[in-house]
User: Fold this.
Amino acid sequence: MYQYNDFDEAFVRARVAQFRGQVERRIDGSLTEDEFKPLRLMNGLYLQLHAYMLRVAVPYGTLNSAQMRQLAYIADRWDKGYGHFTTRQNIQYNWPKLQDVPDMLDALADVGMHAIQTSGNTIRNVTADHFAGAASDEIEDPRPIAELLRQWSTDHPEFQFLPRKFKIAVTGAEQDRAVTRAHDIGLRMVRNAAGEPGFEVIVGGGLGRTPMVGKILRDFLPKADLLPYVEAIVSVYNLLGRRDNKYKARIKITVHENGLEKIQHLVEDRFTAIRAGFSGHDQALLAQIETAFAPPAFVTKSTDGYEAARLANPAFRSWTDTNLAEHKAEGYAIVSISIKKHGSTPGDATSDQMRVMADLAETYGHNELRISHEQNVILPHVHKSDLPAAYQALRAADLAAANIGLASDIIACPGMDYCALATARSIPIAQEIATRFDELKIEHDIGQLKIKISGCINACGHHHVGHIGILGLDRAGVENYQITLGGDGTETTTIGERAGPGFSADEIVPAIERLVTGYMDLRADENETFLQAYRRLGMEPFKAILYPAEDKANAA
Amino acid sequence: MARSFTPKVVTANALLEGDAVWLTEDNRWTRDIREAELITDEAHGDLRLLEAMAQADLIAGAYLADARSGPDGPEPTHFREAFRTRGPSNYFHGKQAE
Assistant:
């Protein structure tokens, strides 16, 4: 993993010291809220419904054990003993006090972390495939590129006041687990005809009030050109992007209004102009960063104990069936730890749970952890022979839910339980849906199903790309939930279609149950997933299930 | 014809803790909405909001929120404002626990 050098350390400490002064001046009244707000947002500090919220970047979702332990320490010392992992691979603390935030940031700096550019109209935390460096379908680990982008974008003088926020996602794998087509820039590693690795550059994707699937700006960009090319894109956007209307300010609108071709021309021109300025320093730096991401020393040992444990313990077998993914190294597995136990808050982990996960990473996982955009925690490198012991430790910490990819593995934004922008709550809906499917004991029969819930149109809960998306709105002073169907956040990204009128908070869970049990009757066989069935059958049969009374009325 | 004015309270977030507070008639910031001043006159509401916003060393983000008169004092009318008087629904945290 990348370790801060002296420059990084000095930079982050200087920012903390600056912010400490700004907080002091806010508290003594010499800064107004209007003056202070942009300063606190630059350091990840929001003011929400019930308290401040500190959003800490987990760069490209990667943590080591010491960092995870420090997150737990911060939760205990200055918050309420838990943290919320987000769809942007960040962690949010929901209860900090203003005067404590500089100390929290110093504690983060102690382990090479920060909250810089987790808000504001800047380039945000660069996200990556949470299986990076471990996935069997990977060309290269995308994290060195992500780290290069992090260093380049942090405090980049040209890009501190963009028209709007800017999100970059990167993957090195064939299967897109980083939702690259729903980002301002998505980078997918591909090979050219000569077999050299480079990037497919996708631009102008995004969810929110105007959801759009990203468009391919360049089929193949040589790896060495990445930084000047990305800089060219952001530079073009910085000048061309609209500043007159915040709802039309994201690059997806810039691309939509100007057309892909014009953007392509402008980016290529800008790229030609600035490329020479990148006289190889970026490549030297990248080479250095790459050494920090060298794969761990994988060992070869027997997996007999693992197979025996699978046979002996049905609960363990079920967990291995759902929560493991194929690792590139022989005998290893990628472990997804579900922090979505039925009825719990999606993405929340207590400080005790964080420490258990840190210990497991240290003991069995080459000291590495990942945060997924699906709000789970990953141990990317665990030898199969260690899985029975790891599973026992997870069980003891209430972290052994065997539901990865299933109906209860729900993405939910904080919604109106915390967020000042929300128009309805999301967390209770997620809790009730998960609890209901657990009662029915059918989620393993249902199979792969992605339910994603947002508490407002900004779509932090990725509802547009949920197989079933739920959007919470305020309809005449009452919470109301709209359903979208057929969304997909993978390499075949699709924006879900709205099914029809929304449901009240009381009606939404029964509606979802009706929809899912109805799908089980409609599917061709038990291997046909919800999404496949929807693609085969279209909206109509699902609509009839959701709105039975209306259906009868129409037929009459 | 102008829209009729619905009663309001002045509310904000406390500067240090960040939690919801309401302005009382005697210019205190209370954590209990029932102690808030219920404003029934639009011009008076605008004035009270200006006075509230001047207290930058105590609060942030003051605004006028709809409220109605209840048996124990002002009550929120919208669910968002009701949540602000309680706290989140997933944990027993915030005002409901105080």
Summary: The helical segments of chain B are 42-53, 79-86. Residues 8-90 of chain B form one domain. The interface with chain A takes residues 13, 15-20, 56-57, 60-61, 77-80, 83-84, 87-91, 93-95 of chain B (CB under 8 Å).
